[in-house]
Design brief:
single chain; mainly alpha; two-stranded antiparallel sheet
């Protein structure tokens, strides 16, 4: 039997306290925010939020369990090339702040899919909002399952009980408090996440023998090779250009065309304030994601010659997604409550993502689907608020139920990327056409979106179910010691046994070549393919026909570069916002 470490009583107290504090913050923010009489107060926090909670919420909303658990595991197995994702995504975030955010304020929408109806028509709005709901439901399931997967590595509590408990806690404060509760709870959860990462680095660098030793072991273990390989390779799991393109697509799509992130920005009073706040969040976002990524090479340096998964008979760890919590419980078990604090940080990643997604999908369901169909849109603010609260509870229950379907998932990161990227690229293409051109009608865009999404779904799910696996980089157990204990009277004999590395093999060589494409390219391929389809459809339906005028509020201010006669009202609106901002500052 191996000596497996578990959480202590103090750790459980810390974890339970962090969960109760999250619920308490949600309820308190609800009590202090008034009666939530209007949909604007519930969905957009009254559009009067401060910068700090919005910035912290922007950072932690997508720091999910798949980020904190699966990304270090991915780098641990396949190398540091993935680090180009956080290094490149500031480019995408900056583009999103200039291209998309001003348009949503010009159109005065509460969800970005309202913009699609103004720009194209009802068909596009219904299709995109429905696909978004499906996409986010799967994402929430992955977040919930990922958090309890972490707990299963350090406790005997069943996965089922953990999933139900965490799901209920998150659903309660999200339903009660709306976006304001989610934003203020994210402040607390961001603190726990950052404390967890700082603690892991403080101990991890020491256990690995210092920064120089981390570099030497990562280099000798071939973890740095792909970071310098600039060859274009679509089938390599982690590559420089694949990670770079993924980073840009990640930034521009999530922070420009995803309701979960954009909703946070829309809670600010003016377009200029929203744009500057999103740009201010770029640096801390990059630092948090970089710290999370570099944790993979730190862990590899620690387990350089004794991989805990290959040595699972002694460690009890069966999945690489559990390597972070496994290290946490081994590194901090001697400090009462410290293991619990780090596990609470992992839970916070789940809660921040779950609550944000719950709030967004409930808002989208009411505003973009139910309200337009309810007596021709004649739905009172009070009905919208109550409907959104009920839907938050319903979606929370569905999420808990669906999470049981993913019990056998082997890679959280691959599953999350496959389920999300299939829609990410086509959706970004639709929004790009909408804000940068005067072409493309409702039917044209709807048709190309469905085709693009169908193709990417076939590609991504084909890859997922083909069971194609790429070989990992060298993993070793040559310095692990298996202790075979025998007893003879009062004497104990320990027989050391060396375990040698298991060679990685490239299996399933007969898999269809498209299913070998790295998941990092999915969103880029979907974006380019859908964009090409849209322009082909526009050519066939009439290139010279403008669907909207050149002074439309649906066009981004950046179109001034090639549209000289763009909307004077837009300039006047922007000037008014600037004057309002200056006036508010002078009053402070």
């Amino acid at each position: 039997m191996f000596d497996r470490k578990y959480l202590g009583i103090t750790d459980y107290i810390v974890i339970c306290s962090s969960l109760l504090i999250s619920v308490g913050i949600g309820i308190t923010s609800r009590l202090l925010s008034g009666e939530q009489k209007t949909a604007n107060e519930y969905i957009l926090a009254g559009k009067n939020m401060k910068r700090l909670p919005v910035i912290l919420s922007i950072i932690v909303t997508l720091v999910s369990p798949s980020t904190m658990l699966a990304v270090p595991a991915e780098i641990y197995k396949y190398g540091l090339a993935f680090v180009m994702v956080p290094l490149a995504f500031p480019i995408g975030v900056f583009l999103a702040s200039w291209i998309f955010i001003p348009v949503y304020y010009q159109c005065e929408v509460s969800t970005i899919y309202e913009f699609l109806e103004i720009r194209f028509g009802k068909m596009t709005r219904y299709i995109v909002s429905t696909l978004f709901l499906v996409q986010m439901m799967f994402y929430m399931v992955i977040c919930l399952y990922g958090s309890v997967l972490a707990l299963s590595a350090v406790t005997d509590i069943s996965l089922e009980i953990s999933m139900i408990s965490l799901g209920i806690i998150c659903t309660i404060y999200c339903s009660i408090g709306g976006l304001r509760a989610v934003l203020w709870t994210d402040v607390f959860q961001a603190t726990l996440i950052i404390l967890c990462l700082v603690a892991l680095y403080a101990v991890g660098i020491k256990d690995a023998g210092g920064v120089a030793n981390i570099y030497i072991r990562s280099r000798d273990g071939e973890r740095l090779n792909d970071l310098y390989d600039l060859r274009l390779n679509f089938t390599k799991r982690l590559s420089f250009w694949g990670s770079f393109c993924r980073g840009i697509m990640f930034g521009i799509s999530y922070y420009g065309t995803n309701q979960v992130e954009v909703q946070r920005v829309l809670s600010l009073s003016t377009s200029q304030r929203a744009k500057s706040t999103l740009q201010m969040s770029i640096l801390p976002m990059t630092l948090v994601y970089l710290m999370n990524n570099m944790l993979g090479v730190v862990l590899y340096s620690i387990y350089y010659k004794c991989d805990p998964i290959l040595n699972k008979s002694q460690t009890g760890v069966e999945r690489y997604d559990q390597i972070v919590p496994y290290y946490i419980v081994n590194a901090f078990s001697w400090i009462p409550g410290m293991t619990g604090l780090c596990i609470a940080g992992l839970f916070s990643a789940a809660l921040s993502s779950l609550s944000s997604c719950l709030n967004s999908i409930a808002s989208v369901t009411v505003v973009d689907i139910i309200k337009p169909l309810y007596r021709k849109g004649n739905m009172s603010d009070k009905q919208v608020v109550w409907c959104a609260k009920i839907l938050s509870l319903v979606y929370g229950g569905i999420c808990i139920g669906l999470s049981f379907c993913f019990m056998e998932v082997r890679s959280l990161l691959l599953l999350a990327t496959v389920l999300i990227s299939s829609l990410e690229g086509p959706m970004l293409a639709v929004f790009t056409v909408g804000v940068l051109t005067t072409k493309a009608s409702d039917k044209c865009v709807s048709f190309t979106l469905i085709v693009g999404y169908s193709l990417m779904s076939c590609l991504s799910f084909g890859t997922l179910f083909s069971n194609y696996t790429q070989p990992t980089l060298p993993l070793s157990t040559e310095e692990c010691i298996l202790q075979n204990v025998t007893y003879h009277g009062n004497r104990t004999f320990v027989v050391p046994t060396n375990i040698y590395p298991v060679p990685s093999q490239d299996i399933n060589k007969d898999v269809f070549v498209l299913f070998k494409i790295s998941y990092l390219w999915y969103s880029t391929i979907g974006y380019i393919f859908t964009l090409v389809l849209v322009f082909l459809a526009v050519i066939f339906t009439g290139w010279k026909n403008n669907v909207i005028p050149e002074d439309s509020i649906c066009l981004s201010p950046v179109t001034r570069i090639w549209m000289k006669d763009l909307c004077k009202p837009l300039e006047m609106k922007h000037e008014k916002e600037t004057n309002d901002t200056r006036a508010s500052k002078s009053q402070m």
